[in-house]
Amino acid sequence: MKDKSPAQPPSDSELDRFDRAIIDLLAQDGRMSVTDLAAQIGLSKTPTQVRLKRLVDQGYILGFRAVTNLAKLGLDHVAFTEVKLSDTRENALRDFNAAVRRIPEVEECHLIASSFDYLLKVRTTDIRRYRYVLGEKISSLPHVASTSTFVAMETILDHDR
Fold first, then answer.
1. CB neighbour class for 8 (10 Å; exposed up to 12, middle 13-18, buried from 19)
2. What whole-number distance in Å separates Cα of residue 159 and Cα of residue 99?
3. Residue 133 CA to chain centroid, in angstroms?
4. Sign of CA dihedral 131, 135, 136, 138
5. Quick one: which of 91, 103, 88 has its CA closest to 137?
6. Which candidate, 47, 112, 126, places its Cα nearest to that of 83?
7. Contact between residue 130 and residue 124 where contact means Cβ atoms under 8 Å apart
8. pLDDT tens-digit profile of 41-97?
9. Residues 6+ apart with CB under 8 A from 99
10. pTM over 0.85
11. Which residue has the higher pLDDT, 4 or 114?
């Protein structure tokens, strides 16, 4: 068995406890300074910076963002929309995927193995705005055959909030 020296960084599939700790801590507080991060994981600042850069470069950490209070911003209406397509061949899926990304109210879009094809999470100011987004934007996406909507009454758990 080949012994890896501490200077050799782990491959993409071999995150060690320090890498996992960096990811976990930054997921909780993306504004944590490298000095504080280093102190919490038990390494000095320079190796922590090197590890952090590698985690970003290798795509483990995709970015940093502010978590906003969407209710205060007037964006607390959430609806989940099932979308059934008239065509599910690769070109149709690619067309739909490209088009749905251009609708800012669509917060999430998942290809689903079910009786429908996509599940969208749509965030708007109110039901009137949602009705507009559904009628004018979602329903006019390529290959949309039908939609069905479920309005969230209350969010119990959302890891991004």
1. exposed
2. 27
3. 21
4. positive
5. 103
6. 112
7. yes
8. 999 999 999 999 999 999 999 999 888 898 899 999 999 999 999 999 999 999 999
9. 141, 142
10. no
11. 114
Per-residue pLDDT band for 11 (boundaries 50, 70, 90) equals low
Q: Rounded to an integer, what distance in angstroms lies between the CA atom of residue 17 and that of residue 36?
A: 17
Residue type, 142: P
Check pLDDT > 80 for residue 9.
no
Does residue 111 sit in helix, strand or coil?
strand
d(Cα 126, Cα 74) in Å, to the nearest integer? Answer: 8
User: Within its chain, how far is the Cα of 119 from the centroid?
Assistant: 14
Residue/partner pairs of 46-51 with CB below 8 Å, 24 or more apart: 48/18, 48/22, 50/9, 51/9, 51/18, 51/19, 51/22
